[in-house]
Design goal:
This protein is α/β, with parallel strands linked by helices. The chain is 55% helix and 7% strand. It has 30 helices and eleven strands. The protein has a six-stranded mixed beta sheet with strand order 3-5-6-7-4-8, with helices on both faces. Strand 1 and strand 2 form a beta hairpin. Helix 26 runs antiparallel to helix 27. The radius of gyration is 51 Å and the shape is elongated. The termini are far apart. Bound molecules: adenosine-5'-triphosphate and zinc ion (ZN). Zinc ion binds next to helix 25. GO terms for molecular function: ATP binding; ATP hydrolysis activity; ATP-dependent peptidase activity; metal ion binding; metalloendopeptidase activity. It catalyses: ATP + H2O = ADP + phosphate + H(+). Homohexamer; may also form heterohexamers. Exists in several complexes of 600-1100 kDa. Interacts with AFG1L.
């Protein structure tokens, strides 16, 4: 408690506390002082006036000052605290309340008030004269300073008036470290309290109690204010810390959103992924693309080989192709083959609503990549960052981002070892500046796989599951024209799931066909109750298509016929081209039209003109589309000649009607051909329809058996 500040001499603090300990020690006094001050408050007040006067000797063994006389204590205190024992003309208006002094002090300073203890001890009573003097001098000590709490408006004014007087007064009466305390409004508070007591006419006998009560109330209020202040201070500190952390975060990263997104965006870009496990082996059906990228792999493996000859490799390679064709996989394979780090970033990550964020991400990405060259940076969906630099409210800062990308691409030398691979589904949407030489100057097309590619991809994914030996991936490949690698992977996966659901041990053709139809036409609708009449109509309609396909020379071979409802259809016949058709002949187009007509012709022949259904509408759509293209696009109409008619709306009415006329003739002829075939093969038509009603689905072989007039094995 005495170590209030550094100005306090250690010699002063230690002896005084020892002194009090010594006073308190039972050995040192002949009278027991075991009762605590608080327990004996009243007794203390009383005994103060009737202190017995025996044993004037102090036993200060603890101080190493044994057998000290009272007069010597004076000297001791005087030497330790010079001036404190001297008589001063300080008139204290304050009447000491020993009842509450202790609790004042403890509440306020959190430690024992040794002076109060001193006053309440029997030693004080025994040697009252000397100790009283010490204690009254010590009234200047913080012990009584809590009196400042008696604040009134008047005391405040008084205080202002008397500040200078008190300053002078305190300067020569107290040690310097106490001055701070003394300067606080002791005098004015004492005055105001005195005044209060006078105005309230408090009798002399109750004045002590009054002061005590007042002081206790004040202390409680003080403690409350202290608490509030503390919590306020704490809140301010927390807010301050948060503010500092926030500012730091902002400085480190201009936008905090960057940090939040790092796990999905920037971090994945900045943390390279080593692609050792992905090689060209994993990418099937895109042989040309692989060949073109092979030289990039060579460059990454051995950049010096290229620099020696002075050749420049493209900085950027643009992979162009529909979704799911393996562009990302190819880029990974390039990094994997060359065994270099792979930085992945998606263009949409750079597309930000906030100014500068996209640009700063690009900067970060390139900085990291350059530090780890040779490496591959892959930017997926390049069109979303490198699209034409138009200002749009949706992408307000795209211009800045793309400029940054251009700057970064210009910023490193071609042979620095960083290869940027961009991927896009819409190369037309890219900014021209991005595809000029020196940037993405090499384009590699990644098309949808052809039948050979699809077979390879199917085999690759089939090898990852258990499949029956009877499975022919080529048949599935033939029936999945236009499927991308990702779709084929999904097909195999769905077949595996179906086999698992059906409790089969391995995947068979049936599951593969099932999942193919599901992807092409939507899920089966087994729960749909279709009445026999509708089933019969569907069976004849579908077998009508099948008969035309079977007996028309240029039609595609039949793969399957079914009357199982699926998606929006009640049944369908699927045809398989032997190969992907790059070109189609006039005969093939006419055959396709005839097959489409087969459904309606069958309905009409079997059920009569009045019972034809709406079920043929999509067949007509298909046939009309082919006929229209033959006339307006393919130059296959004698009457309209070898000419294209792109915008039929702008044509003269005569030409328009001529086109319509030609289309109509083509369709009518097709209808007649189909009718002829079905009339000719009425028996086969009937057999096939009945077989479909019995078996629901027939594959190519079964259809052939039925049409050859043989009996089907009972399944
Ligand atoms: N040619 C392929 N060979 C093997 N697997 C392929 C092939 N193409 C696609 N896949 C499979 O499909 C998944 C998706 O392909 P990927 O992400 O590479 O396509 P993408 O062309 O990058 O598509 P997007 O344009 O939508 O980003 C691959 O992870 C892979 O499993
Ligand atoms: Zn049909």
């Amino acid at each position: 408690m005495f170590s209030l500040s550094n100005t306090v001499q250690p010699q002063v603090t230690v002896p005084l506390s020892h002194l009090i300990n010594a006073f308190h020690s039972p050995k040192n006094t002949s009278v027991s002082v075991s009762a605590s001050v608080s327990q004996n408050q009243h007794r203390d007040v009383v005994s103060e006036h009737e202190a017995p006067s025996s044993e004037p000797i102090l036993n200060l063994r603890d101080l190493g000052l044994s057998e000290l006389k009272i007069g010597q204590i004076d000297q001791l205190v005087d030497s330790l605290l010079p001036g404190i024992c001297k008589d001063k003309n300080v008139s204290s208006h304050w009447h000491t309340s020993h009842v509450s002094a202790q609790s004042f002090f403890e509440n306020k300073y959190g430690c024992l008030d040794i002076f109060s203890t001193l006053r309440s001890s029997c030693l004080y009573r025994q040697h009252s004269r000397t100790l009283k003097r010490i204690c009254s001098d010590l009234q200047y000590w913080p012990v009584f300073i809590q009196s400042r709490g008696f604040k009134t408006l008047k005391s405040r004014t008084r205080r202002l008036q008397s500040t200078s007087e008190r300053l002078a007064e305190t300067q020569h009466t107290a040690p310097s470290f106490v001055k701070g305390f003394l300067l606080r409004d002791r005098g004015s508070d004492i005055e105001s309290l005195d005044k209060l007591m006078k105005t309230k006419n408090i009798p002399e006998a109750h004045q002590d109690a009054f002061k005590t009560g007042f002081a206790e109330g004040f202390l409680k209020a003080q403690a409350l204010t202290q608490k509030t202040n503390d919590s306020l201070r704490r809140t301010r500190l927390i807010v301050f810390i948060l503010l500092v952390v926030g500012i730091y975060g902002l400085l480190k990263n201009p936008f905090l959103s960057v940090r939040f997104r790092t796990t999905t965006g920037l971090d994945s870009a900045v943390d390279p992924v080593q692609m050792k496990n992905v090689t060209f082996e994993h990418v099937k059906g895109v042989e040309e693309a692989k060949q073109e990228l092979q030289e990039v792999v060579e460059f990454l493996k051995n950049p010096q080989k290229f620099t020696v000859l002075g050749g420049k490799l493209p900085k950027g390679i643009l992979l162009v192709g529909p979704p799911g064709t393996g562009k990302t996989l190819l880029a990974r394979a390039v990094a994997g083959e060359a065994d270099v780090p792979f930085y992945y970033a998606s263009g949409s990550e750079f597309d930000e609503m906030f100014v500068g964020v996209g640009a700063s991400r690009i900067r970060n990405l390139f900085r990291e990549a350059k530090a780890n060259a040779p490496c591959v940076i892959f930017i997926d969906e390049l069109d979303s960052v490198g699209g034409k630099r138009i200002e749009s409210p949706m992408h307000p800062y795209s211009r800045q981002t793309i400029n940054q990308l251009l700057a970064e691409m210009d910023g490193f030398k071609p042979n620095e070892g960083v290869i940027i691979i961009g991927a896009t589904n819409f190369p037309e949407a890219l900014d021209n500046a991005l595809i000029r030489p020196g940037r993405f100057d090499m384009q590699v097309t990644v098309p949808r796989p052809d039948v050979k590619g699809r077979t390879e991809i199917l085999k690759w994914y089939l090898n990852k599951i258990k499949f029956d030996q009877s499975v022919d991936p080529e048949i599935i490949a033939r029936g999945t024209v236009g499927f991308s690698g990702a779709e084929l992977e999904n097909l195999v996966n769905q077949a595996a799931l179906k086999a698992a659901v059906d409790g089969k041990e391995m995947v068979t053709m049936k599951e593969l066909e099932f999942s193919k139809d599901k992807i092409l036409m939507g899920p089966e609708r087994r729960s749909v109750e279709i009445d026999n009449k509708n089933k019969t109509i569907t069976a004849y309609h579908e077998s009508g298509h099948a008969i035309i396909a079977y007996y028309t020379k240029d039609a595609m071979p039949i793969n399957k016929a079914t009357i199982m409802p699926r998606g929006p259809t009640l049944g369908h016949v699927s045809l398989l081209p032997e190969n992907d058709r790059w070109n189609e002949t006039r005969a093939q187009l006419l055959a396709q039209m005839d097959v489409s007509m087969g459904g309606r012709v069958a309905e009409e022949l079997i059920f009569g003109a009045d019972h034809i259904t709406t079920g043929a509408s999509s067949d007509f759509d298909n046939a009309t589309k082919i006929a229209k293209q033959m006339v307006t696009k393919f130059g296959m109409s004698e009457k309209l000649g070898v000419m294209t008619y792109s915008d039929t709306g702008k044509l003269s009415p005569e030409t328009q009607s001529a086109i319509e006329q030609e289309i109509r003739i083509l369709l009518r002829d097709s209808y007649e051909r189909a009718k002829h075939i079905l009339k000719t093969h009425a028996k086969e038509h009937k057999n096939l329809a009945e077989a479909l009603l019995t078996y629901e689905t027939l594959d190519a072989k079964e259809i052939q058996i039925v049409l050859e007039g043989k009996k089907l094995d009972v399944r």
